[in-house]
Amino acid sequence: MTSRVAIITPDAAFEERLRTSVSSLPSSAVRRWKDEYLRIDPSKVVAEMADEGVGVVCLGPGLPVDTMLELAAAFDRDHPEQCVLMLAEPTVDLWRQAAPAGVRDVVSPQADLVELSRAVARAVETAERRRANVIGDADPRRPASRVVTVLSPKGGSGKTTLATNLSVGLAGAMPGKVAVVDLDVHFGDVAAALQLSPSHTIRDLAIAGAVDTTMAKVFLSSHASGLYVLCAPESPAEGDEVTYEHAAQAVGLLAQEFPVVVVDTAAGLDERTLAAIEVSTDLVLVATTDVSSVRSLRKLVEALDGLSMTAQQRHFVLNRADARVGLETPDIETAVGMKTALSLPSSRAVPLSMNVGTPVIISEPRSPVARQLQRLVEQFTAQSPDSHLVPSGPSAPRRRWR
Ligand SMILES: Nc1ncnc2c1ncn2[C@@H]1O[C@H](COP(=O)(O)OP(=O)(O)OP(=O)(O)O)[C@@H](O)[C@H]1O
Ligand SMILES: [Mg+2]
Predict the structure, then answer these.
(1) Closest CA to 262 of 172, 178, 201, 189
(2) Protein residues near ligand 2, an ion, with CB under 5 A
């Protein structure tokens, strides 16, 4: 089902521009403005939109900011599966108010048609994912998959170490059912860490255009463990060609085909990482024990909260946890606001394993670091009522968006 897009604005000229930008999308046409929207209870506007199958609501321009925020909060409260776009100048101050009201994006009304249609397309995609999560309106043929995104605000903190060992460990438990995507499109080294020489990369998938799940498999490399790998492009220039939409498409396609998809990311929250987070069920958040890493992770967690990216289960991994730099684990947990799911010790075996392209979980399975990594694998494979990883078990209840 494709979401309808509603526009709530008294600005007829803008409405016409938005109609033009939406016309390139599979979504149906926008609605007209009614003056009474300014007067009636926001919940009534929300109910009216829901009755009409609206998935995306564009608020403004030409409305008082307070009215837009009230309406956005009402949509967020009454129909969290609907996605709200605000058409206003995206100042820091406005974002501060818009994010807690559940607004998905703030876009300048002066944005060109390409930018507008991109923003609406993203909102439509988000609305459809939310609808699937909240109402269970998913393709019934599609198996519930688990998408695990590994992220950290800092480079070199151990994301690739975790993503490769976790995915290889999971593939060992479920051969052929796990894929890993390298979304570090400029400098990704998942291929090197797994000693693969890919024939195709995510950039080839990106430029291939419309691809279905069967075709997407052509772009994957296979690893001896039974893992499938969508590798990063060969050069940063090629990486530039991979956009938010491509990342969302790649992870989404693989999630339709594989019960588990692990995503490695570049440091920080770039647009591709945000695309992966939006379709993730789980986030593995990595920090090392130094103050700068811990502080940055705290900021990243706050940013995720601010963007209402709170539906994913968060797993905090402390890497090189035995480094003696003055911060103890309980202090770190307090600072980050999360309990550690796992502490990984420092070990020479890790860089050695990366250098030879065999994850430490395979090359040194009895080492303390590999045992800890195996524990992480088991946290994901553990049979629990809401585990997605039990291939023949009962299907998990769908998680509510928020
Ligand atoms: N527990 C550990 N003990 C020893 N070395 C480690 C450990 N974890 C990671 N390393 C080493 O630290 C370096 C960075 O690790 P890794 O590549 O996994 O980080 P990253 O977060 O993916 O970095 P980037 O942001 O550059 O992609 C690598 O050389 C890796 O071998
Ligand atoms: Mg990396």
Answers:
(1) 178
(2) 159-160
Q: Which residue has the higher pLDDT, 25 or 5?
A: 5
Which string of b and e fits 117-152 if b means at least 16 CB within 10 Å? Answer: bbbbbbbbbbbbbbbbbbeeeeeeeebbbbbbbbbb
> Residue 28 and residue 19: Cα distance in Å, rounded?
10
Domain spanning 146-381: which superfamily? P-loop containing nucleotide triphosphate hydrolases (3.40.50.300)
CATH number of 4-135: 3.40.50.2300
230's tokens: 């969508």
Nearest atom in ligand 1 to the alpha carbon of residue 154 is 25
CA–centroid distance, 308 to ligand 1, in Å, is 29
Q: Compute the distance from residue 38 Cα to the ligand 2 centre, in Å.
A: 50
pTM score > 0.70 for this model?
no
Q: Is residue 208 very low, low, confident or very high in pLDDT (cuts 50, 70, 90)? A: confident
**Residues 93-118: tens digit of each pLDDT:** 888 888 888 888 889 999 988 888 88
182 Cα–ligand 2 center, Å:
9
Nearest CA to ligand 1 atom 18: 158
Across the range 67-96, mean pLDDT stands at 88
Among protein residues, the one with the nearest Cα to ligand 1's atom 8 is: 158
Which residue's alpha carbon is nearest to atom 11 within ligand 1?
351
SS3 80: coil
What are 265-309's pLDDT values in tens digits? 999 999 999 999 999 999 999 999 999 999 999 999 999 988 888
Distance CA 336, CA 93 (A): 25
- Which atom of ligand 1 is nearest the CA belonging to 348? 4
Each as own residue / partner, the long-range contacts of residues 346-354 (CB below 8 Å, 24 or more positions apart, any chain) are: 346/320, 346/322, 350/158, 350/161, 354/160, 354/161, 354/189, 354/192, 354/193
What ligand 1 atom has the least distance to the C-alpha of 152? 21
Q: pLDDT at residue 387 above 60? A: no
- Contacting residues for 41 by C-beta, under 8 A, at least 6 apart: none
Q: Which tens digits make up the pLDDT trace of 174-197?
A: 988 999 999 999 999 999 999 999
Q: Where are the domains positioned within the chain?
A: 4-135, 146-381
- Judge whether 318 and 332 are in contact, CB under 8 Å: yes
